[in-house]
Write a structure and sequence with these properties.
By secondary structure, this protein is of the alpha/beta class. The protein folds into three domains: about 1-65, DNA polymerase, domain 1 (Orthogonal Bundle); about 110-285, Rossmann fold (3-Layer(aba) Sandwich), CATH 3.40.50.450; about 290-360, Arc Repressor Mutant, subunit A, CATH 1.10.10.10. About 45% of the residues lie in helices and about 15% in strands. It is built from 17 helices and twelve strands. Strands 1-2-6-5-4-3-7-8-9 form a nine-stranded mixed sheet, with helices on both faces. A three-stranded antiparallel sheet has the order 10-12-11. β7, α11 (about 235-245) and β8 (about 250) form a beta-alpha-beta unit. The longest helix is centred in the middle third of the chain and has 16 residues, at about 125-140.
Length: about 350
């Protein structure tokens, strides 16, 4: 917990991102030592003069311990990239945030998520498509990620909640600054049925430059991005292109050629930058998620045994033979075979042949 306070403190320093965090940890061994280091040592760690000046300035104004108290007063949890609960898919992008702030709760099931983005001024067509697409995805067990903005974002969150699903809102400022203010009540509902996330500490107001950075988190933590309606130069198109750079799937809903709100989505489709989708099942099929709902229902009926819980720590995305799994877990072969059979039935693991197993979903 003590070291976490210094992660939080450094996250307040402009210009200190993933690379700088790594430099500081590598040179000083821990961030607590880095926080109290003199300027000359910070320069020896490889930091430029501007960053060193920022660190010296910020640490003269804040206390790491008080930062943690401040987070607690807002019921905000800080999760570092070294924490097992940090969204694993987000760490795949090159500029992932070293620290994220969370209000609400992230669940393992949220790894199966799709970002839904679009214009702040949707047409009736765009509104209806969002409701239909999100409702179908949620019923299939998919968590919906969006940005809590007006328009498509708000409709996506609302539709997920009304369909009884989970949703995550990624903000462009501190979690004490809900923007727009009209979505304060929706933010509360999102916290109760998902989470609010930001890379920005408490007290940071959303600025124009923050929104593209916010968008990279939305796409980075998701399996894919659905663009419902968007103009040619809208932020949703920027998010789609960020998703492409992150090797994420991009989906777009086609629209009439005379609607300004469909020019962006039609352009993505025309340039083969996005896959054309007309139903939520198109997304499920492309992401191989068609069985998510059935798997989740089965998991609710068949609770995990002690052996299954143990095996979850020893089965990964890399194929492992049953003998190797037995060796790692320390369980008897009969226990492992029985547990793996049930886990396969639930859709938790897959057998690749030859008694080799992998996790079905990460």
């Amino acid at each position: 917990m003590e070291e976490l306070a210094y992660w939080v403190a450094f996250s307040r320093v402009p210009g200190v991102g993933r690379v700088r965090f790594s430099q500081l940890e590598a040179f000083f061994g821990n961030l607590k030592s880095a926080w109290s280091a003199p300027a000359e040592q910070l320069r020896q760690a490889g930091l430029d003069s501007r960053t060193v000046s920022s660190i010296v300035s910020v640490r003269s104004r804040i206390s790491p311990e008080q930062e943690m108290e401040h987070l607690a007063s807002y019921s905000v949890q800080a999760i570092t990239c070294a924490d097992a609960s940090y969204p694993s898919r987000l760490k795949e992008i090159h500029d992932y945030p070293p620290v994220i702030y969370v209000r609400g709760k992230l669940l393992p099931a949220d790894l199966c998520c799709v970002a839904v983005v679009g214009t702040r001024g949707p047409t009736m067509y765009g509104k209806q498509v969002t409701v239909d697409m999100v409702g179908g995805l949620v019923r299939a067990g998919v968590t919906i990620v969006s940005g809590l903005a007006r328009g498509i974002d708000s409709i996506a969150h609302r539709s997920a909640l009304e369909s009884g699903g989970r949703t995550i809102a990624v903000l462009a400022g501190g979690l004490d600054n809900i923007y727009p203010a009209e979505n304060v009540d929706m933010a509360r509902r999102v916290m109760e049925n998902g989470a609010l996330i930001s890379e920005y500490p408490i007290g940071i107001r959303p600025k124009p430059d923050n929104f593209p950075r916010r968008n990279r988190i939305m796409s980075g933590m998701s399996l894919g991005v659905l663009v419902v309606e968007a103009g040619e130069t809208s932020g949703a198109i920027v998010t789609a292109r960020q998703a492409i750079d992150q090797n994420r799937e991009v989906f777009a809903v086609p629209g009439t050629i005379v609607s300004p709100m469909s020019k962006g989505t039609n352009m993505l489709i025309q340039r083969s930058e996005a896959k054309l989708v007309v139903d939520y099942t198109d997304i499920l099929a492309e992401l191989n998620l068609s069985m998510v709902a059935e798997q989740m229902e089965m998991k609710e009926v068949l609770a995990a045994s002690d052996a299954e819980s143990v095996l979850l720590a020893h089965v990964s995305a890399e194929p492992a033979h049953i003998d190797e799994i037995c060796r790692r877990s320390g369980l008897r072969t009969s226990e492992v075979a029985s547990a793996l059979a049930l886990m396969e039935l639930k859709g938790v693991v897959r057998q690749l042949g030859g008694m080799n197993y992998v996790l079905a979903k990460r």
